[in-house]
Write a structure and sequence with these properties.
alpha/beta; six-stranded parallel beta sheet
Length: 379
């Protein structure tokens, strides 16, 4: 397959993806595929409904191209199916049954392209009692038990932005699913439907915890375990300037270095004595409150004590380690995370800014050999 458009950079060069526009995990999954080199064409709606920000700043649409098609118009479905003919993957995030009603469901698409991988991104999944219900990240993760794990024991659970559900349990599982199905399709010629539900992916993320729970090594309540803030040497502590340090010296050798640098060697034996965890926590908290975040950062610099400053979104790109790795990049005046992961041969990059609705119609019509895209659309 010829490499066209924004493809040509990354291991997915030559893979063609149709993204039916939505918000949240679907666009992020399509961005990840685009970051990896796929030629992603986003099918925007007339008057588009995306994030409530200027499309120029919606970096989840970077490395993509956009066409505008009205799926409710008489010729709308046919124009999408012309793209499907030439695609390897399609991604949609409608409620179950909506794509079918619009004329672009999996049965119709597979009739045109039997090898197509049809990726479906929802919160509740394609079936089940809640499948037709509206929802957002916080409701999905609430039912899986993962939201209830996060926060202090005497306070309400803490919403982890929409990172845990939408993007970790949703987008990343969709991407793994469609790439696995693409591997199968290329080996057999048979496409299939990938049902990526945020409830399924988020539950899957807690696999290790369920094992610990079954073994009696995890208590089914917040702030009572080794990795949920219950442990005094795995959590965050406020500094004298109102900032925070993250602490995680779980292993003995790291803990020994931690208490030495913190200056609380006399409290070291409390590590394994759960009855003294409260006392140890108070001691650690008092020490961190005695200096600023930057002062403590300097104390632990170069050590294996597993301590790091808690940085803000604006501070993170300037951290020396992240700057040295190029973890963040600037493109079009917007500082944003660089593509991940990294590849030794098929390098990735931010090649273009957020696709503007309909701006690439003529180019896509030419590259994908779909001249009917130009009928009634921007050129």
């Amino acid at each position: 397959m010829a490499v066209t458009g924004t493809a040509g950079h990354g291991p997915l060069a030559g893979v063609r993806v149709v993204e039916l526009a939505g918000i949240g995990p679907g666009p992020f999954a399509a961005m990840l595929l685009a970051d990896l080199g796929a030629d992603v064409v986003r099918v925007d709606r007339p008057g588009g409904a995306g994030l409530a920000i200027n499309p120029e700043y919606d970096v989840t649409n970077r490395n993509k191209r956009s066409v505008v098609i009205d799926l409710k118009a008489e010729d709308g479905p046919a124009r999408v199916l012309d793209l499907v003919d030439r695609a390897d993957i399609l991604i949609e995030g409608y409620r179950p049954g909506v794509a079918e009603r619009l004329g672009v469901g999996p049965v119709t698409c597979h009739a045109r392209n039997p090898g197509l991988v049809y990726g479906r991104m929802t919160g509740w999944g394609q079936e089940g009692p809640l499948a037709q219900r509206a929802g957002h990240d916080i409701a999905y993760i609430a039912l899986t038990g993962t939201l209830g794990m996060i926060g202090k024991p005497d306070e309400p659970p803490v919403a982890p932005a929409n990172l845990l559900g939408d993007y970790a349990g949703g987008s990343l599982y969709l991407v793994v699913g469609v790439l696995a199905a693409l591997h199968h399709a290329r080996a057999t010629g048979a496409g299939q439907v990938v049902d990526a539900a945020i409830v399924d992916g988020t539950a899957h993320l807690s696999t290790m915890i369920h094992g610990m729970l079954a073994a009696g090594a995890w208590q089914d309540r917040r702030g009572a375990n080794l990795l949920d803030g219950g442990c005094p040497y795995y959590g965050t502590y406020e500094t004298s300037d109102g900032q925070y340090m993250a602490v995680g010296p779980l292993e003995q050798q790291f803990y020994d270095e931690f208490v030495q640098l913190l200056g609380i060697e006399d409290q070291a034996p409390a590590r394994k004595d759960l009855s003294r965890w409260g006392e140890l926590r108070e001691t650690v908290a008092a020490r961190f409150k005695s200096r600023t975040r930057d002062e403590w950062t300097a104390v632990f610099e170069g050590s294996d004590a597993c301590v790091a400053p808690v940085l803000s979104l604006r501070e993170a790109p300037a951290h020396p380690h992240l700057a040295a790795r190029g973890t963040f990049t600037d493109h079009g005046g917007i500082t944003q995370p660089a593509p991940a992961p990294r590849f030794s041969v098929t390098h990735t990059s931010v090649r273009s800014g957020p696709a503007q609705p309909g701006a690439d119609t003529a180019e896509v019509a030419r590259d994908w050999d779909v001249p009917d895209l130009l009928k009634g659309g921007p050129e």
